[in-house]
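[Meeting: bench + compute handoff]

Bench side (C.D.) handed over the final construct sequence. Compute side (W.E.) agreed to return the predicted structure before the next meeting so the bench team could plan truncations. Sequence as handed over:
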Amino acid sequence: MTDHYLERLFAPRSVAVIGASERAGSLGRIAFENLRAAGYSGELIAVNPKYRSLAGLPCYRSMADIGHRVDLALVTTPAVTVPGVIDNAGKAGTRSAVVLSAGFGEIGPEGLALERKVLEAARRHGLRIIGPNCLGIMRPSVGLNATFARNMPLPGSVALVSQSGAVAAALVDGAQSSGIGFSSVVSMGAGIDLDIGEILDFLLHDPDTRSILIYMEGVRDARRFISSLRAAARSKPVIVLKSGRHVSASKAAMSHSGTPSGDDDTFDAALRRCGVVRVKTYSELFSAEQLIGSGRLPQGNRLAVVTNGGGPGVMAADHAAVSGVELAQLSQTTLEALDACLPSHWPRGNPVDILGDATASRLAQALAPVVADKEVDAVLTLFSPQQILPSDEAANAIIARAKDTKKPVLTAWLGEIEVSAGRSVAEKAGLPVFRSPESAVAAFGTLAEFRMAQKLLLEVPAPLASSVQPDLDTARSIAQAVVRSGRTALSETEATRLLGCFGIPAARTEIARSRDEACAIARGIGFPVVIKILTYDIEHLAEVKGVCLNLRGEESLLREYDALLERVRTLRPEARIEGVTVQPMIEKRFGRRLMIAIENDATFGRVIRFGAGGIAAEVVHDIATALPPLNRRLAQELVSRTLSARLLRPFRHIPGADVEPILDVLLRVSEIVCALPWVAELEINPLLADESGCIAVDARVAIDPAGLNADERYGHMAIHPYPAKLERIERLRDGTPLRIRPIRPEDATLEIDFVERMSERSRYLRFFSAARGLTPQMLARFTQVDYDRELALIALPEPDPGRILGVARYNTNPDGDSCEFAIAIADDWSGRGLGTVLMKALTSAARDAGYRSMTGSVLRENDGMLRLASRLNFELRPDPEDPSVVKVSRALD
């Protein structure tokens, strides 16, 4: 309803270059000249006490001397002067600054101290900063080149956000040769204030931005980053290039940007849940943008290849095998149609080789059934130079067939001079164009990954995955007893009890302090049994051969008991031995050994790992990672990304393992993450699975005592679960029952119907516009909320919830302490008290989420909303910048 708080940063009406200079090669001169050369349409101001004028413009001694508020300060002075410069700019009313100057955190403790001073000065005045040590920002549409880069990009619809100025400059330069234009270019630099998350929030609402490219080296605020990334990806394609994939690169990224790179598998898992695709090289960024930005998304991962040469087709097939792309199995109908139009000696399969003597007619005839095949999700055409078919004629044949389908049709033109005409025709028609089979196949793999990521983005799991309530009281008592004993690791018996609190099947485990006690327990359990040394000082029992398996009688148990204790005392004399644990020997003829774990990632908090168990867990490293919370679909997707998923299938005489119980365990582990913030680490290894179910044979749990006092806001997780606790039944004044609950992505159809039913006046009062209907971007923003920095509560009739009767929502304000609300009620339900019910539920949820106040903007003519705000103790005051609007606010504490 109001301008974004970064609007004046990216579309400033005035820019002051602090440190503007005449000295050749100086940062101040380059920045000042770049703004002049770009044709900046606003007021350009020079600030430097050394000059009275600069390039024909007056030059001021300080910001205070300018005489009016300046929207943006572009700082080019030495690092030591920047704290004072920011303080003076803030005093003069400036609220945005881009600091190009270097010499801060990248030089060590002295520079970090300067960063703190800059930030303190900025926060005193509510001034927001890009940088320091950054390339700057560009907005071609307004001629804003607030950088020291050599070239101004072409105007366009792609936004680029980069934590490296050098990478940003290279990408801008490379894009010019391809004719790609930008809506914004943002170099974050050290990022001491504004971070990528806040920039994404602005770009989400920016009408000039169609897609977003990000180069990053690490994440500072994971919760904010994930929330903003998910919000942006719901409306616009977002493509990420992240460096630091390997350990040595991660260290370099940390020293460069000051941001920890974190575990790369976890970062991939985070992007997967954000509806975002990751590319490996910056040359792939624009290829991915070209494909994803076209709007043609495949339904699956099945690619058909049509080629006029066998060799390129084989190259494409080979690269598909290593890229995770599936070559489509052509239907019998398609094969018969190809038989009818191709020479008899065509290879009869995928890739479809139309042979080197193909004409444009043969190409078109072959493409038609392949494109129409329901077993094909996308088509790649490979063209090699040959005499019979000119490349431009081939391009026109491909374009004609591409117009008849919504499937992606990719083209690769192998060679240079002989295929340049065809490549040019295809580019002008908007077809994706590549120069090799490998790059085209990789690009399709990226497109398919994006499609899957967009589907995963719609999953909004609740903290509890089933109707079976875990025994949280017993779980907490276990943790409290462990803390009282001065430990942070649970014994295996305690770990087994904890799993039982969440319904995870586990082997019976009991502690024996002596030989006789071990025998007595074994008799009660029944032979054969397993004994394990019980000590909190040895992490891996295999190091001391601390496990004795398949003990079938008392004689062997006593012998192994004595040998076990003697061995451990010899190998690890400092270890404190508490006794042994005794378990039944679980034997599954066709059992698969799996591993499920909770780990604490330094950047993204708790993550869930799944993969091969037993010794293979460390040797094979077959592990996939997911961010909780999980639901069944997300759990299935996690399992599918491992080699172990293949081992679960039937093979010859070996029956397939029952996957459903494995998914159940993953869901219970997700519940542990959500419900128990004090569980820092958990490992079930092995989890034995076969055709009859699964059971946890061994479990280790480490706890964080501080988590016992954590609040219920899921601060230990990067993704906020669906807040099922906010679901309730309420009654209006006349007794009518209503179901109040948070909105979900599947409510999109109901939301469309709700807005379409609103009268023109109601839409005007709610949206400040009478425009009818919702754009796809608006619909995604309204129904796909992250429940962390935003919440929408809907009212539905009970017991038939087939229509939305009202919506109340809040979004976090930039200060992080307050939120802005909006509410809309169906016309035929106004005046019945529904607004009061929804607003009370919303304010209660905002208070529980930790917000201190709630604000809103109400049109002065909206008498009903103003009366409701007064009844709910909101303070009403005129908007000083818009007399037609009333600002309402109330404290929530």
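W.E. noted at the follow-up: The CA atoms of residues 502 and 672 lie 7 Å apart. C.D. will use this when planning the next construct.
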